[in-house]
Design a protein that fits this description.
The protein is mainly β and 802 residues long. It is 7% helix and 52% strand.
Length: 802
């Protein structure tokens, strides 16, 4: 599920500064025509599309409101109504409707790996994302925080390919831009809905829009969800995976003359166990290894096609966010708009993973700690279209500042079976029986040389300041041919310190370390060049070259031995695109096709050493293919959606990639191999069919089939065939009945209707070496754990509107 929130300690000072800045820009008298307010609003926001027709949606991918078919980039855009029909309730669900996009989750709720065109980054480290997330125009720095419900969302844009010019340093392969519904002027109304679903899931949502005079309005939205979980733990008979969620959003809008100002506040809270089903792949070990393993720890669940696990689990999750966003737009005359976005975000996540060995024996538990406080400030200038240089030139420009203080931590706790299983009784110290006795005697002791609670404690503190300035312009040579050129200069300053303390028994897995890391000062110029041809209003052809980058960063891995360096370099992306956006038969048919070739250099990759992950600059990647998005409307009330993407992933240079588990060599050459989470084929086929009954009642049926071909699903790039996830297809559907005047709607819906059992990812058994699980079926193999995806779910909802 997904969460967002905002506001800033700068709030009073920042907003005051913002007003003064806009007033300074507006020193010259503005045209006080009747269209001033609407112009400022349209330049600053993304209104929803016509109902049921996302090919006409208005997006802000280029900082101004434009029809999606007029924007020369590969973008998938959806209204909130379409997302509801497709049962998309969070960022993870977007992969059901967006080809070449994936969202992988892990044991920690903060692990959310968003990928576009096969490139992404783990979110529970200090590494920057490859896919940047924006909410109401403001950057969300920690992707792991984007996991609560899409409450009152107006539209979502998924921008494929580098967006380094207008969206900045961490949109190196794409961006996701979410827009919430703005308060509606002069209109009182709202809705209340209730929902029930599989896994003892109950949800209540309320929305209210309250006008204040002719020029202002408030909007309030809130939801409460109670969820028991999809999984059953045979060890204790309890339901697993449940999370209760509270989300609230309030906004205020003032629009009068040249001014349009929207202020938003958010709060989100999740609590529960936050656990998921991670089963043991029995085929990944030999019979002898399996017999020894279960004699030591007991038998974990090995049925990869059920909703059952069998492991020691004492998990808990607490996740809180709050914040606010101020978006102030001013029409400064002649159709130009100044826009100021001020944003603050405070996010805290604390999760006890239970036992990270994932067996019936209580061995070792992990507590993850994440704390991010960030602020964004962006001042934009948006010119009018068709007015400068006799209608030949238009442009957008801006300056940007971002600041974040981030704390990431880990606490390992020894459970009751740790000492007897992992402290040897023979060999040199600490491998002797007396020390095993000392270990057992200190399991309930906090810290110290032998303490079992906080036996290993890691803390990483990072501060980031980022500055940028950008400009992008379109020049029309003729009414059919125009060029796009833009550039952005970004400067990043980072500082960090790393500290890890450990007791005598965990030094082999968590090495003691304390250091102030060297400061990072990184800067980069990214740009976009394009040539676009529009023979008529229904066709657009474009050729684009664009670049993006991720700044240098710190390796926050907690493993041992200490990595040779805790600083890694930048990652850069260069992308060619050749595309066409076309509409036919009076918009009854829309067909968009983009061919692309992305080259990634200095790829920031993770490697697993058996106990923890480290981040480093790996080799170079080439990702190329095409994306097709089509909509056909043979009837006014019937639509067919067809989307497909092809991806050819290949390392062009990676001579020192991680070796297979347990191999005597330390590396391998992955040249010619694909990256993880890079399936060759992804796509979607769906229908939307509406009709009317007698007496004004209507109905709506929506069905969506998404598919993915096989791919490497391991948590590191090592081309291990054990980590291949076979292709799968998922069917979802929603059927609704609407009362006359749309006063109420009753819906039934289902996801994964055919109950397809598939994996979200494959991970190696933690401490596989000490547990004797390396080199089983073949040299370089290891015990593999499979992270289950959600089973078939069924639900119903009832919504009343007023």
């Amino acid at each position: 599920m997904i969460r967002y929130t905002y506001l800033t300690r700068v709030s009073a000072a920042g907003l005051a500064l913002g007003i003064c800045s806009v007033q300074a820009f507006a020193a010259q008298p503005a045209d006080a025509n009747s269209n001033a307010a609407s112009t400022a609003t349209s330049q600053a926001t993304a209104p929803a599309a016509n109902s049921g027709n996302d090919s006409q949606i208005v997006i802000t991918a280029q900082k101004r409101a434009e029809n999606v078919q007029k924007v020369p980039i590969s973008v998938a855009a959806f209204t909130g109504q379409t997302l509801t029909k497709s049962n998309v309730i969070n960022v993870e669900d977007l992969q059901k409707v967006v080809p070449n996009f994936s969202a992988a989750k892990g044991a920690q709720s903060t692990y959310l790996r968003l990928s576009i065109r096969g490139i992404g980054a783990a979110s529970n480290t200090t590494v920057e994302p490859s896919v940047a997330v924006f909410l109401d125009g403001a950057y969300v720095p920690r992707v792991g925080s984007a996991i609560s419900s899409m409450l009152d969302v107006d539209s979502v844009e998924v921008l494929r390919g580098p967006q380094g010019t207008l969206f900045g340093r961490n949109a190196s392969v794409g961006a996701i831009s979410l827009h919430t519904v703005q308060p509606k002027l002069g209109k009182f109304g709202g809705e209340v809905s209730t929902e029930i679903g599989t896994g003892d899931r109950y949800k209540v949502t309320g929305i209210m829009n309250v006008p204040v005079g002719d020029h202002a309005a408030f909007r309030f939205a809130g939801s409460q969800q109670w969820f028991g979980g999809y999984w059953h733990n045979n060890l204790d008979g309890k339901r697993v995976g449940g999370v209760d969620e509270t989300v609230a959003r309030g906004s205020f809008r003032y629009s009068n003359g040249p001014i349009d100002w929207v202020i938003r506040g958010d709060y989100a809270h999740q609590s529960g166990d936050g656990a998921t089903n991670i089963d043991f792949d029995r085929s990944s070990v030999t019979d002898a290894q399996w017999s020894r393993f279960i004699s030591i720890v007991g038998a974990p669940d090995t049925n990869l096609n059920d909703n059952v696990l069998n492991q020691y689990l004492t998990a808990s999750l607490e996740d809180k966010q709050w914040g606010a966003n101020s978006t102030l737009s001013w029409n400064v005359g002649g159709g130009s708009t100044i826009r100021l976005i001020d944003n603050y975000r405070d996010w805290k996540n604390n999760q006890l993973d239970g036992d990270v060995i994932f067996t019936p024996a209580p061995i070792l538990s992990r507590v993850g700690v994440f704390d991010s406080k960030s602020q964004n400030h962006e001042l934009q200038f948006i010119s009018p279209t068709n007015q400068w240089l006799n209608g030949k030139l238009d442009m957008v420009a801006g300056i940007y500042y971002f600041h974040e203080k981030y704390h990431q931590g880990e606490r390992l706790n020894e459970n009751s079976k740790f000492c007897n299983l992992l402290v040897p009784v023979t060999g040199p110290p600490p491998g002797n029986a007396p020390l095993r006795a000392i270990c057992n005697a200190n399991l309930s002791t906090v810290g110290g040389p032998f303490g079992g609670i906080d036996a290993a404690v890691q803390d990483v503190h990072q501060t980031v300041d980022s500055y940028a300035a950008y400009v992008q312009a379109n020049y029309h040579f003729t009414d059919k041919l125009f060029a796009t050129a833009g550039g952005r200069f970004s400067k990043d300053e980072k500082s960090a310190d790393y500290k890890q303390v450990t007791n005598a028994f965990l030094k082999a897995q968590r090495a003691p370390e304390a250091e102030t890391l060297p400061d990072i000062n990184d800067s980069r110029f990214t740009y976009r060049l394009g040539l676009n041809y529009e023979p008529n209003k229904n066709q657009l052809f474009f050729l684009t070259y664009s670049t993006g980058y991720k700044s240098a960063g710190y390796n926050s891995g907690a493993g041992a031995p200490v990595p040779p360096t805790r600083v890694f370099g930048r990652e850069t992306t260069a992308d060619w695109e050749l595309g066409a956006k076309t509409s036919w038969l009076n918009h009854a048919l829309t067909a968009n096709l983009t061919f692309y070739r992305m080259d990634i250099k200095g790829f920031q990759d993770r490697a697993f050493d058996g106990t923890s992950f480290t981040v480093r600059n790996a080799g170079n990647l080439r990702h190329q293919g095409f994306e097709f998005d089509g909509i056909a409307r043979p009837l006014a009330n019937f639509s067919v959606f067809a989307n497909v993407a092809y991806l050819d992933s290949e390392f062009t240079d990676y001579p020192a990639a991680p070796g297979l588990p347990g191999t005597p060599t330390v590396s391998q050459n992955l040249k010619g191999k694909p990256a993880t989470y890079a399936p060759k084929w992804t796509g979607r086929l769906g229908v939307d069919w509406t009709g009317e009954f007698a007496s004004g009642f209507s109905w709506d049926v929506n069905s969506n089939l998404s598919f993915t071909s096989k791919f490497y699903g391991g948590l590191q790039n090592d081309a291990n065939p054990q980590t291949i996830i076979n292709g799968y297809a998922l069917l979802g559907a929603r059927a609704s009945i609407n009362a006359p005047g749309n006063r109420w709607t009753f819906s039934v819906f289902s996801n994964n209707m055919l109950n397809k059992q598939y994996a979200l990812g494959n991970l190696y058994q933690f401490l596989g070496g000490p547990l004797g699980l390396l080199n089983g079926p073949f040299v370089g193999s290891s015990a593999v754990r499979q992270l289950h995806a959600d089973p078939r779910t069924i639900g119903a909802s009832l919504t009343f509107r007023y």
